[in-house]
Design brief:
By secondary structure, the protein is an alpha+beta fold. The protein contains 5 helices and 5 strands. Helix content is 57%, strand content 12%. Belongs to the claudin family.
């Protein structure tokens, strides 16, 4: 009888969303573009500074001449939102990875029945990891215009921050989907 062999939809949703979330969060964490600084006074008009949580790059838009490892003259990396992101983003990535390992063990297809309790626990871990990356992304966004930048320059949200947000949301949704497995445990009791 086939219906007992099928993997519940919520588990499949969780196992699709969470690895996508991990990939986006990883990219957002590693790439140096949480914020873009442009139209810096006394600099070429096409110069864009990209600031991440680990590195700063400058790029000339006309020639795509890009240099990373820029000096942090304004104390950007000493700001609390940046330091919190440096701590929480990698923590979130490790938790996501662990959650996915537990989820894989809970959902495994080589058994007749998924392990609902294990999948539910994985869901909670993934939900937590999503929240852990959402917090620094939200705080950084809130402080984006307050973080040090050359006076008179234009500040915009960078793609790394957007990817971090999207990844966090996918992990939260995937974690919630997997956490629905607890419902099955309660039904069995």
């Amino acid at each position: 009888h086939l219906s007992s062999m099928r993997t519940p939809t919520a588990m499949i949703v969780g196992l699709v969303l969470c690895p996508c979330g991990l990939l986006l969060t990883l990219t957002g964490t590693l790439t140096p573009n949480w914020r873009q600084v442009s139209l810096v006074p006394n600099q070429p008009i096409d110069l864009v500074l990209e600031q991440g949580i680990w590195d700063m790059c400058s790029e000339r838009q006309s020639s795509h001449d890009r240099h990373c490892g820029q000096a942090d003259e304004l104390g950007y990396f000493e700001q609390v939102p940046v330091q919190v992101a440096q701590g929480l983003m990698p923590t979130s990535l490790v938790l996501t990875f662990l959650g996915l390992v537990v989820a894989a063990l809970g959902v495994r297809c080589w058994q007749k029945e998924p392990r609902h309790l294990l999948a539910g626990v994985a869901g909670l871990v993934l939900l937590l990891s999503g929240l852990l990356s959402l917090m620094p992304a939200s705080w950084y966004t809130h402080e984006l215009w307050a973080l040090p930048a050359p006076a008179g320059s234009t500040l915009v949200v960078g793609y790394s921050l957007v990817l971090g947000y999207l990844g966090s949301c996918l992990e939260i949704l995937g974690g919630l989907a997997l956490a629905f497995s607890f419902h099955h445990c309660c039904k069995e009791r």
